[in-house]
Amino acid sequence: MGRTKSTQIWRSALFNRRKIIVFLLCLAVSALLWLLLAFNGFYSTRFAVPVKYINMPIDHVLMESLPKQADIEVSGSGFHLLTYRMRPQLAEIIIDGRNIGTMPAGEKNGSFLTTLHAIDYFNRLHGDIKALNIFPDTIFFNFFNRGYNKVPVQVSSFLEFVEQHGLVDSLTIKPDSITITGPIELTGKIEKVETDPLILTNLNKSGSYNLKVKPPHPEISFEPAEVAVHLEIDRFTEANVEVPVFIEHLIQRDSVNVLPQTVQVVFQVALRNYKKIKSEDFLIVADVNDLKVQKGGRLILKVKKAPNYAKQIRLKPESVETIIRKR
Q1: pLDDT tens per residue, range 299-309
Q2: How confident is the model at residue 88 (pLDDT cuts 50, 70, 90)?
C-alpha cells in the first residue's frame, strides 16, 4: 500500500515538471516570435557615431580640433538599428572639406561646414537604414594660413665627468635643425626648439643619446620628434706652448717694448689631440688702447685666437710691462 502511494506521488511530480517545461518552451517561443515581429517593425532612433573629414585644405591649419563624433537620427528596421547601435563605426559620417563655407567679416568663427551633404552621402552608402538628421547641423571653426620655418635645435645639458676627462668638442646634434609647421603667425616668431634636458654623471667614454623635442606651441607640429646627441669624450692632460705677444692699435710712428715678449699658454688638451699642438695656432695680444684705463704701464693680455682642441686656457704671466716711445 505504501509503495503504491509513493509511485503516485512520483508520477504526479513528473507530470508537473513536464507541464512547467512545456510552459517555459511555449514562453520562449512566444518571446522569440515577439522579438522577430518587433525587429521587423520600423523605428526611428538617435545615437552617436564617428565623423571622418575628407578633402580638407592642406595649405591651412585648424586652430581648434573638429568634432570626432556627431549624433545621427536614423530610421529603419529594428534589426538593422540594433546592429548599427552595437557597432556605430559602421555608420561613420563622412564630411567633405570641399563644402567649406566662409562667415561674413567680423564674425567670431571664420569658416563652417554643414552636414546636409553628409546625410545624402550616408543614405547613398547605406541602403538598410535612412539618415534623417545629423546633430549639430553646422560645424564652426577657424582656419589659418599654414607657415613653415626651419629652426635650430637647442640642447640643455648638465654633464659631470670622471676626473681628467671631458668633451673633446661641442655636442653633436643630428639633426641640428628641424622644420616646424603651423599657423604662419606663430611659425615666424619661433627662433629655436628645445629638447628634454640631458643630465649625465660619471662620464668617461663617448656615447650617443636620443632626446625628445619639446613642442614649442600646442598648435605647432614638427618632425622628427627626437634628435640624437653625440658626446665625444677623452682623457685630458695639461700642455703649454710659448707664444709671442703682439701689440694692437699702436700708432705707426711710435715703438713699444713689452716685457716679457713671450708668454706661456697653459691649457687642457685631449690625448688624441696632443700631437696637433702648434704655437702658431694661438694669438696673444696686448691692446695699447687699454693703457687709457689701466694704470702702471701694464697691459692685460688677451687670447685673440685659439684652436678648438685647447680647453681652460691660462696665460703666464697674465699681463706685460710696456714702454712706449713716441716719435
Answers
A1: 889 999 999 99
A2: confident
- Delimit the domains of the chain by residue range: 1-35, 41-141, 147-231, 236-325
Cell of 19: 507541464
Task: Decide if 247 contacts 288 (C-beta within 8 A).
Answer: yes
CATH number of 236-325: 2.170.120.30
Q: Assign domain 147-231 one CATH number from 3.90.700.10, 3.20.20.150, 2.170.120.40, 3.40.605.10.
A: 2.170.120.40
How many Cα atoms sit within 13 Å of 283 on the Cβ side?
6
* CA dist., res. 289 & res. 252, Å (int): 14
The grid cell for 205 is 667614454
Q: What is the CATH number of domain 41-141?
A: 2.170.120
pLDDT of residue 53: 87
Strand order through the sheet with 129-135: 93-96, 42-54, 69-77, 129-135
For residue 195, give Cα distances in angstroms to 87, 200, 221, 223: 42, 15, 15, 13
